Amino acid sequence: MEPSQHPETNLQFPKGFLIGAAASAHQVEGNNANSDWWHFEQMGKLPKSGLACDHYNRFDDDFGIAQQIGLNAMRISIEWARIEPEEGKWSAAAIEHYKKVLRSMKDHGLTRMVTLWHWTLPKWLADKGGFETNEGVEAFARYAWFVAQNLGKEVDFWVTLNEPEIYTLLGYKQAIHPPFIRSNYLTYRVMRNLIWAHRAAFKAIKTVLGDVPVGIAKNSACYQPFRKNNFLDSFIIFVFRYLDFYLLNRIHKQLDFIGLNYYFLRKIKFDWRHLYLEMKPNDPLNFSDMGWYLFPEGIYRVLLNLKKFHKPIYVTENGLADARDDRRPKFLQDTLFWINRAIEKKVDVRGYFYWSLTDNYEWHDGFGPKFGLVAIDYQNLKRTVRPSAKIFKQIFSV
Ligand code: FCB
Question: Does ligand 1 have an atom closer than 6 angstroms to the CB of 166?
């Protein structure tokens, strides 16, 4: 079935469906000076994040915009490097700050989903090897416990970790992100430790707060063989899917919901020399500014694949870099259409968070990519709502 061409078409979402946007602390707050990223930025190994969007000071205005464009939820992250700037030293000021942030969200009618760790580490922990070591796992459990204890009343949904697989791949296999290492052994070890870190944080939050919803944000692409009916291409896809489910298979007992971060399609072709090659369909209209192949229908397929875990699902990230805002309206409309189809097929999808509310610091790509429903002018940090943001009111406030 083709996606509808008009946002007005009656898409019925379940009562209580969350419609929001997502962001992470380091990408928007600014001056995250006690983190490993900041350190590498000053060394010239990464673009400087500086003031970022100054969300640290402007959060109230930003949540006001979220409310104004019709959102009823936000996913933010808490910055570990602020909460525990030195080992074992917990910052009361940081806790006070995040209390204000979380209350402001509530005052703006936003359900609060909070990620405990979105890729940045306190510098002191990174110096000790971060998640390469068991000590990293224990430190994370202590941090989760502390945040649950001090901010627990102000959080509606907990996300322990953001995209453990992508973190591990970029930092330990491809050496694009800190700590810029290429090691198969450490890739395995960090992945394993992140699984343990999730379980430990899950336990800590439950011990402190009882029966509150705790999940993880997991990245999944939509994989397709480049050549239809080609055994070798299909075999590679089979392996990719197996690896994709590895994390969830290992933690499904410590998971109240699955957070899905879905962005693009990956067309894979078997190759004798490299094992596989990443192929791109030759249609420029379907690319984001970052060259990601946009395929809204893919979210439907991924959601159907996740059905077997029998967990509620929140789309914790989905979006595109589109500075001209000329692909975003149809992208959003089609994505919501396909999520709706998945719900009709009895997948228990309970919310959608667009990445991101505002333009922000896109990791090693710096401030180039424009993901925001709201544009930021980095000269004066002025916010301007992009036209595509009106789709939420059109679809959800009927
Ligand atoms: C995801 C990250 C998020 C953002 C988007 C574009 O993989 O979780 O922080 O960078 O990609």
Answer: yes
Q: Which domains does the chain have, with CATH numbers?
A: 3-395 (3.20.20.80)
pLDDT digits (tens, 9 = 90+) for 80-126: 999 999 999 999 999 999 999 999 999 999 999 999 999 999 999 99
| Distance between Cα 272 and ligand 1 center (Å) | 32
pTM summary value = 0.97
Q: Sort strands 374-377 and 382-385 into parallel, antiparallel or unpaired.
A: antiparallel
* Bridge partner residues of 382 (DSSP): 377
Burial class of residue 253 (count of CB atoms within 10 Å of its CB; 0-12, 13-18, 19+):
exposed
75: amino acid identity, one letter: R
The answer to whether 41 is a known catalytic residue is no
Per DSSP, the chain holds a count of helices (H) and strands (E) of 13, 13
Region for residue 236 given its phi and psi (left: phi exceeds 0; alpha: psi -120 to 50; beta: otherwise):
alpha
Q: Residue 358 pLDDT > 70, yes or no? A: yes
Ramachandran category for residue 88: left, alpha or beta (phi over 0 → left; psi -120 to 50 → alpha): left
C-alpha dihedral (148, 150, 152, 154), degrees to nearest 10: -150
Task: Determine the straight-line distance between the first and last CA of the chain, rounded to whole angstroms.
Answer: 24
Find the 217 Cα to ligand 1 centroid distance in Å.
11
**pLDDT value at 3 more than 70:** no
Structure confidence at residue 281 (pLDDT): 73
Q: Per-residue pLDDT averaged across 255-268, rounded?
A: 97
Contact 52, 29 (CB under 8 A): yes
User: Which letter does DSSP use for residue 4 in this model?
Assistant: P
Contact 155, 102 (CB under 8 A): yes
Residue for token pair 């192949």: 293
For β-strands 313-317 and 349-355, DSSP reports them as parallel
Tell me which residue has its CA closest to atom 10 in ligand 1. Answer: 362
* Average pLDDT score over residue span 365-385: 98
* Residue 117, helix vs strand vs coil: strand
